[in-house]
UniProtKB/TrEMBL annotation:
An individual GO BP term: negative regulation of DNA-templated transcription
Region (Disordered) location: 1-21
Organism: Saccharopolyspora erythraea (strain ATCC 11635 / DSM 40517 / JCM 4748 / NBRC 13426 / NCIMB 8594 / NRRL 2338)
Name of the molecule in the record: TetR-family transcriptional regulator
One Gene Ontology molecular-function label: transcription cis-regulatory region binding
SUPFAM superfamilies named in the record: Homeodomain-like, Tetracyclin repressor-like, C-terminal domain
InterPro entries xref list: DNA-bd_HTH_TetR-type_CS, Homeodomain-like_sf, HTH-type_TetR-like_transc_reg, HTH_TetR, Tet_transcr_reg_TetR-rel_C_sf, TetR_C_32
Alphabetically ordered keywords of this record: DNA-binding, Transcription, Transcription regulation
Composition-biased stretches (Low complexity): 12-21
Start and end residues of each HTH tetR-type domain: 29-89
Location of the DNA-binding region in this protein: 52-71
Amino acid sequence: MVARRRRSAPEAAGGRTSARTARVRMTGKERRQQLLDVARELFAEKGFDGASIEEIAHRAGVSKPVVYEHFGGKEGIYAVVVDREMRHLLDLIVSALSAGHPRELLEQAAHALLEYIDNSTDGFRILVRDSPVASTSGTFSSLLNDIASQVEHIFGLQFSAKGYDKKLAPLYSQALVGMVALTGQWWLEVRKPKKEEVAAHLVNLAWNGLSHLEHKPTLRRPK
């Protein structure tokens, strides 16, 4: 029994040494990425207020000072997570609007958003949450404005070609992007019907409505 205990002590010490060595062997870049992945999952699960540096550190298997060293605090790591998600989604939308017939561009943009929601659910949950530290350049509404500015170009070309007032293109682009975004938030929870079908119905409403626009619409109020 004594011999066994003597062997177990070095083994336990060796285990602790191995754990420390494993943490040391992770490069700074790898550690930063690990912390971002852990924080992303936690923010999606609990929101900014519900998450803590303690839990991020615990899930990553590091001490709190390691998190502070890389990001300075919870606000810092949250800002990086949000910025990465915004850039990723915007890149997807911009890529979808690169070429094709206007209707095809709208289809591709709607599908790109739903594809992002489907494949990056945690990221979308983070983007649509309200946060006390989200700045005007780091909110979901700001992201939608960026996307709308891309869609506005499509509307501008179509309005000019069909004799509509080009100055109204920003209004219509905001309306369309808002419709797709709100539908995406709803679809995030229900996941029915399939994203291809959802995108088709969104474009059906937008495009077939746009194809019969009145040049000077008025509200039809009863006299």
